[in-house]
Specification:
heterodimer; A: mainly beta; 4-stranded antiparallel sheet; B: mainly beta; globular
Chain lengths: 103, 123
C-alpha cells in the first residue's frame, strides 16, 4: 500500500505569510493527488486535485505542485479564513494532516 | 449538489448500524460514492467506495467482512451497513461523492461531502 507522509504536523503563521505544506508518497503516484481543507466540526473541502488543478470556487491564493512522489500545497498570502487543518489524499490514503495555527 | 446523511448514534460493541446518504443536485447514477471516517481528534480515514454502477466495491482492511457499502440509484442514495461494531469504529462518518465513476483507485477524488454523522460504540 502507498503511504502518504505530510509535513509539518503543525505550522504557526501570521496573516499575509506564504505557507507551504509538503506531502510525500512512498512510491510514484503520477499526479493523482488532492488537497483538502477541514475546519473544526465541518466536513473537508476539496481545494486542489490532480496535483495542481484548482477546484471551482477556491481562491487563487491556493496552489498545488509536484509529481511523482513529492507534492506541495502553497497558500500565497494566508488569510484569517485559512486557519484550518489540511490533508493530502491519494486514492484511498490520506496524509496525517497539517494544522495551520495563528502565530 | 447536496448530500444529506442519516443514521448513526450510540450502539453497543458487536451490534449493527446502518448509515444512509441521500444525494441531490446531480446525476447520481454517474458518480462513485465513498464513506470516509474520522475518529475523535484524529485524521481522515477512507472506509469504502462503490462505483457508479455498483459493480465494484472496495474497503479498508479494518472493516472488510464487517461493513457493506451499497447504493440505490432509483432513490439517489448510498448506504453503509456496519456489523460487528467495535470501539475502534467510533468516529464521525462522512459520505462523499467521487469526481468520477468511482473505484478507479488512484484517480478517486472526493469533491462533495455530507455533513457527517457520529457513530459511538460503547458499552
Amino acid at each position: 500500500d502507498i503511504q502518504m507522509t505530510q509535513s509539518p504536523f503543525t505550522l504557526s503563521a501570521s496573516v499575509g505569510d506564504r505557507v507551504t505544506i509538503t506531502c510525500r508518497a512512498s512510491q510514484t503516484i503520477n499526479s493523482w493527488l488532492a488537497w483538502y481543507q477541514q475546519k473544526p466540526g465541518k466536513a473537508p473541502k476539496l481545494l486542489i486535485y490532480d496535483a495542481s488543478t484548482l477546484e471551482s470556487g477556491v481562491p487563487p491564493r491556493f496552489s498545488g505542485s509536484g509529481s511523482g512522489t513529492e507534492f506541495t500545497l502553497t497558500i500565497s498570502s494566508l488569510q484569517p479564513d485559512d486557519f484550518a487543518t489540511y490533508y493530502c489524499q491519494q486514492a484511498y490514503t490520506f496524509g496525517q494532516g497539517t494544522k495551520v495555527e495563528i502565530k | 449538489v447536496q448530500l444529506v446523511q442519516s443514521g448513526g448514534g450510540v450502539v453497543q460493541p458487536g451490534r449493527s448500524l446502518r448509515l444512509s446518504c441521500a444525494a441531490s443536485g446531480f446525476t447520481f447514477r454517474t458518480s462513485g460514492m465513498h464513506w470516509v471516517r474520522q475518529a475523535p481528534g484524529k485524521g481522515l480515514e477512507w472506509v469504502a467506495v462503490i462505483s457508479h454502477d455498483a459493480k465494484s466495491q472496495y474497503y479498508v482492511d479494518s472493516v472488510k467482512g464487517r461493513f457493506t457499502i451499497s447504493r440505490d440509484n432509483s432513490r439517489n442514495s448510498v448506504y453503509l451497513q456496519m456489523n460487528g461494531l467495535t470501539i475502534d469504529d467510533t468516529a464521525v462518518y462522512y459520505c462523499a461523492r467521487d469526481k468520477g465513476v468511482g473505484a478507479s483507485g488512484g484517480e478517486d477524488t472526493f469533491d462533495y461531502w455530507g455533513q457527517g454523522t457520529l457513530v459511538t460504540v460503547s458499552s
